[in-house]
Write a structure and sequence with these properties.
Helix content: 40-55%
Number of strands: 17
Number of domains: 3
Number of helices: 18
CATH class of the largest domain: Alpha Beta
Largest sheet: 8 strands, mixed
CATH topology of the largest domain: Aspartate Aminotransferase, domain 2
Strand content: 5-15%
CATH architecture of the largest domain: 3-Layer(aba) Sandwich
Length: 490
């Protein structure tokens, strides 16, 4: 490679054919300084001279010099020339390191964490694994990404100052209005937009509710079985978790009242109990409200996937029967659309709106206003309703395929009840089969199942497995059931 030598001792190699010239010149001069070929304090040729000597524009040389000056390698003043600095950035790093190394080694003071921190359970890394039946996952490939992308582009093109600055901590007003109208029409929820708080999902909403309504050691009644995140969050507070059994009619309010006479909060999933899938009867709903009224309790109604009901209209929310204002109603677009969307909502009694808005403000201010605006358009323009209708039809076909295939292929060992809602079902095991052993055998044949016992707090259910069906084609379902049968030697 050819080499050019200036009077200063600066040697520049010819640049590669695809090089950005100012970056090449910057790297060459920096390398010469660090290697000592360009001595500290030496004066460099002028930008005009260097440009002329190496066939570069003066702008290219100025850009390289500016970067080297910004990083501390060169020092230059108008009319006085440009010099290599006598102190280079690496000198400061070396001095700092030497100063640290010269210090005597002292034992680090023991860091004391809060009691809250000590109650936290380590969270494992959760890499996105290849999809495998029967994982509990929505049909992500059916989401209308094209429509969503068009709305995103449109919102950004038309973005006003309202979308680009901080917003009300309760959420984007047009979205709250759309949510209130949607819930009134589809869930029988009695509310105004002023009662809607946009949150990052039901878990976030429950966290705000705990912080506002509970003190340490307050009693909280929760369904047994239930999603393990709920008791885990309560125990970190810490609150006293009181498990209440669930039967075919939902949360057993009579047992709950016997076991806990004065709960501060009652957590329920009445529309589609997780994980059993039962729907709370009207009688139980009214009994639940009466229990809350007499005991001065709050009810947290988790309405995580009530839109996915396949027989008749979705059951009206408990909140719609509540004249006392004791229900905090929660829902999630993440559950129905995309898990990574992280958008949900709370409907809170009017007396609590200001407190919830203040809590939201000091926790993380508000969710992304752009995402809220896109979700608003998706809802108002009817795309959300169309997507839900499509998913209901898809889920009905896939749930029927799962039920019929299991009942045909494994009638002696498993029973699948009628599937009326949701994206998963409980499969009950027969002949004293143990769910953990079955789940382990299935995993060895690349079939994912979840033992029902992992959701139990106290009450022992019959052995069963949770199987998701929403994300799998009929062929995938049949293939997975075949592998499940092989794992059981059937």
């Amino acid at each position: 490679m050819a080499s050019h030598v200036a009077a200063t001792g600066l040697a520049l190699h010819d640049p590669p054919s695809n090089a950005v010239l100012w970056q090449w010149l910057y790297r060459e001069i920096r390398a010469a300084i660090l290697s000592g070929r360009l001595k500290r304090g030496v004066c460099l040729p002028s930008t005009r001279e260097l440009g002329r000597k190496y066939g570069l524009s003066r702008g290219t040389v100025i850009a390289a010099f500016d970067q080297l000056q910004a990083e501390g390698y060169l020092d230059g003043k108008v009319g006085a020339g440009t010099y290599v600095n006598t102190r280079l950035p690496e000198d400061y790093l070396t001095t700092a390191r030497a100063t640290i190394d010269d210090q005597p080694v002292r034992p680090r003071k023991i860091v004391t964490l809060s009691r809250f921190a000590n109650r936290l359970i380590p969270v494992p890394e959760m890499p996105v694994a290849p999809l495998r039946a029967f994982r509990l996952e929505p049909a992500l490939d059916e989401f209308p990404t094209g429509v969503w992308g068009q709305i995103v582009a449109r919102c950004m093109r038309r973005a006003t100052r309202t979308l680009l600055v901080d917003s009300d901590s309760r959420g984007y007003r047009p979205l709250r209005e759309a949510i209130a109208e949607h819930l009134g029409a589809t869930r029988g929820v009695a509310c105004s937009a002023d009662q809607v708080i946009v949150v990052a999902g039901i878990q976030h909403g429950f966290d705000l509710t705990m912080r506002l309504l509970l003190n340490p050691q307050d009693r909280v009644c929760v369904e047994d079985p239930c999603h393990p995140m709920i008791p885990a969050m309560l125990r970190v507070l810490p609150a006293r978790v009181i498990p209440v059994p669930v039967d075919t009619e939902g949360l057993d309010t009579r047992v709950g009242q016997r076991q806990c006479r004065g709960p501060k909060l009652i957590y329920v999933t009445p529309a589609h109990q997780f994980p059993l899938g039962v729907t709370m009867t009207l009688e139980r709903r009214l009994a639940l409200l009466d229990w809350a009224r007499r005991s001065g309790s709050w009810i947290f109604e988790d309405d995580y996937d009530s839109e996915y009901r396949y027989t008749g209209r979705p059951i009206p929310a408990v909140q719609g029967f509540d004249p006392e204002g004791s229900v905090i109603f929660s829902g999630s677009f993440s559950k129905l659309l995309l898990p990574t969307l992280r958008l949900g909502y709370l409907v809170v009694p009017s007396m609590l709106v200001d407190k919830f808005a203040a809590a939201r403000f000091i926790s993380d201010r508000h969710s992304s206003i752009i995402d809220q605006a896109v979700m608003c358009e998706f809802l108002v323009e009817g795309h959300f309703a169309r997507h839900i209708r499509r998913m209901r039809e898809l889920h009905v076909a896939r749930s029927r395929e799962l039920r019929e295939t299991v009942n045909r292929r494994l009638p002696e060992v498993m029973e699948v009840p009628e599937i009326e809602a949701g994206i998963h079902t409980v499969v009950w095991l027969k002949h004293e089969l143990r769910e953990e052993a079955v789940a382990q055998a299935a995993a060895e044949h690349k079939v994912e199942t979840v033992p029902l016992r992992r959701f139990a707090l106290r009450r022992q259910q019959p052995d069963g497995l949770l199987l998701g069906f929403a994300a799998y084609t009929p062929r995938q379902i049949r293939d997975a059931v075949d592998r499940l049968a092989v794992s059981l030697n059937r």
